[in-house]
């Protein structure tokens, strides 16, 4: 099994509900085991499109799926949760990105690992730091905490719901 880290985000409708449904869909796959989840953070939108605040988190999994099959499954989860790809960087019910897949680096037409511009995205770095500040970003050869320390200040990312470590329906506390 290979460890992988996924980023989840939502800014339409019941944002928390979409995140939790995505986690349950990941859990339902026989070749995916969830190892850990971050707290949920409310974040300012990234990119040029005017839109609502996001809820973001990261999920650490282990899987026997190859990267392309994992991508195919995560995209099927997005479709199942009414994700529409009409505006680049636009609003979405759910977005699931593969941040890391073991220590693999790849760049194909459909998949780039590690995910592009991780080092510029506080909405990814902050929850990643919570999971493991010493994760080394493949290709960057820097730890998450070092990438985070390069920012003058942490803004646009606020703790929304703290993880409490409980079971299936008690993943989060207010």
What's the short story on this structure?
With 174 residues, this protein is α+β, with helices and mostly antiparallel strands. Helix content is 25%, strand content 30%.
CATH C-level category = Alpha Beta
CATH architecture: 2-Layer Sandwich
| Helical coverage, percent range | 25-40%
User: Based on DSSP secondary structure assignment, what is the total number of beta strands?
Assistant: 11
Give the integer mean of the pLDDT values: 88
How is the CATH topology named? Alpha-Beta Plaits
Number of domains: 1
Spatial shape: globular
Structural class: alpha+beta
InterPro entries: Hppk (IPR000550), Hppk_sf (IPR035907)
Pfam family, one: HPPK
EC number: 2.7.6.3
Domain 7,8-dihydro-6-hydroxymethylpterin-pyrophosphokinase: 88-99
Describe this structure in words.
This protein is globular. The protein is built from four helices and eleven strands, in the order βαβββαβββαββαββ. The protein is an alpha+beta fold and 174 residues long. The relative contact order is 0.21. The strands form three sheets. Strands 1, 2, 3, 4, 5, 10 and 11 form a seven-stranded antiparallel β-sheet that branches. It has helices at residues 15-28, 67-80, 122-131, 144-149, and strands spanning 2-10, 32-37, 40-43, 54-63, 95-101, 106-107, 112-113, 136-137, 142-143, 157-163, 172-173. β8 (136-137) and β9 form a beta hairpin. It has one domain: 2-Layer Sandwich (Alpha-Beta Plaits).
């Amino acid at each position: 099994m290979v460890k992988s880290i996924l980023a989840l985000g939502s800014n339409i409708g019941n944002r928390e509900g979409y995140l939790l449904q995505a986690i349950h869909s990941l859990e339902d796959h026989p070749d995916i085991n969830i190892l850990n989840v971050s707290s949920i953070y409310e974040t300012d939108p990234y990119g040029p499109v005017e839109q609502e605040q996001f809820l973001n988190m990261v999920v650490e999994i282990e899987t026997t799926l190859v990267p392309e099959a994992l991508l195919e499954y995560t995209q099927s989860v997005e479709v199942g949760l009414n994700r529409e790809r009409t505006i680049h960087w636009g609003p979405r019910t759910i977005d699931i990105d593969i941040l890391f897949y073991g220590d693999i680096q790849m760049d194909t037409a459909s998949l780039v690992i590690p995910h592009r511009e991780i080092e510029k995205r506080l909405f990814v770095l902050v929850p990643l730091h919570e999971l493991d500040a010493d994760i080394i970003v493949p290709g960057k050869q820097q730890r998450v905490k070092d990438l985070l320390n390069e920012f003058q200040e942490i803004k646009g990312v606020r703790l929304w719901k703290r993880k409490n470590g409980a079971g299936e329906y008690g993943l989060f506390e207010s």
